[in-house]
Amino acid sequence: MRAAIDIGSNSIRLALSDGTGRSTITKLADGIDRTGKLSPVGISATLDALREYAKVCRAAGCDSITVFATEAVRRAADGAQFCAAVKAEINLDVLILSAEQEARLALAGATKPDGAITVCDLGGGSLEVICSEDGKTPSYVKSLPLGVVVMKNKFNGDYRRAIDELPTLLREYGTVPAYPVVITGGSACTIAACMLNLKIYDKNKVSTRFTAKQLDDFMPMLLSPKLALFRPVCQKRADTVPYGAIVIQALLNRLGATEFYVSDASNLEAVLNGALDGTI
User: Fold this and answer.
1) How many helices (H) and strands (E) in the chain?
2) Which one of 18, 39, 182, 204 has the fewest beta carbons within 10 angstroms of its own beta carbon?
3) Of residues 241 and 277, more confidently modeled
4) How far is it, in rounded angstroms, from Cα 27 to Cα 223?
């Protein structure tokens, strides 16, 4: 039995090779733009989740556990210190992915149509755009600190300002090939669950196609202060989902995309399937 754990900027996820998994909101990157460090509360929540996940892995008889971290830990001044604490307290080694590794894993793990593709991995700390002419090898990769936690901290509830400023922030991606768009990450999947009006999150149902107009029409709900009341499936991410929606809407406009796919599967599934075993 194999296991993989993704330590993200907003959540931590566990996947086992028997198809089971878990996800916990930890807000590890909360405040990182202001302090340059990981959130103390987020560190505590992440360590607690890792302890629980380690117990799950032991109970399942896992003979391999791969733990990796992305933008928040890579960027934070105390990222190495955090990894040392994980090793000392839980005896798990944490691999901090490079931006290139993260891009290749997102491309490999996403559920996507065959052929040329643009995978947009929207996390808590960053928005990574990866284009591939053959769907396998990246031909364009660029990551910017436009993740949902960063956006929440930057705009602090001012959705109008976020909507006005995102197009300018996205210009830094430059010219991106006009390929079909797949969006991954917890916020994108939660938005998909809200749009589908799911009562219980279903990773297979959210991994589907939407039109940009569907998102445009649903924006008032996604920006409503009563979002969690009307769509309980998003309750745990209610503070960041509005920013995810604003980023995705602006990104689709930037790319000129009239439709997009959402993929629950991403870098975690790629790692679980052995993508780090000497191939990336």
Assistant:
1) 13, 11
2) 204
3) 241
4) 20
- Binned at pLDDT 50, 70 and 90, residue 279 comes out as very low
Structure tokens at 100: 């290139």
Question: How many whole angstroms separate alpha carbon 227 and alpha carbon 62?
Answer: 39
48-98 pLDDT, tens digit per residue, is 999 999 999 999 999 999 999 998 999 999 999 999 999 999 999 999 999
How many CB atoms are closer than 10 A to CB 239? 18
The DSSP secondary structure of 212-251, one letter per residue, reads HHHHHHHHHHHT-TTHHHH-GGGGGGTTTHHHHHHHHHHH
The residues, any chain, with a CB within 8 Å of residue 164's CB and separated by 6 or more, are none
Closest CA to 186 of 255, 91, 122, 118: 122
Beta strands in the chain (DSSP E): 2-7, 11-16, 21-25, 64-69, 94-96, 117-122, 127-132, 138-144, 181-184, 209-211, 259-263
Judge if pTM exceeds 0.85.
Answer: yes
- Quote the tokens at residue 23: 């996800």
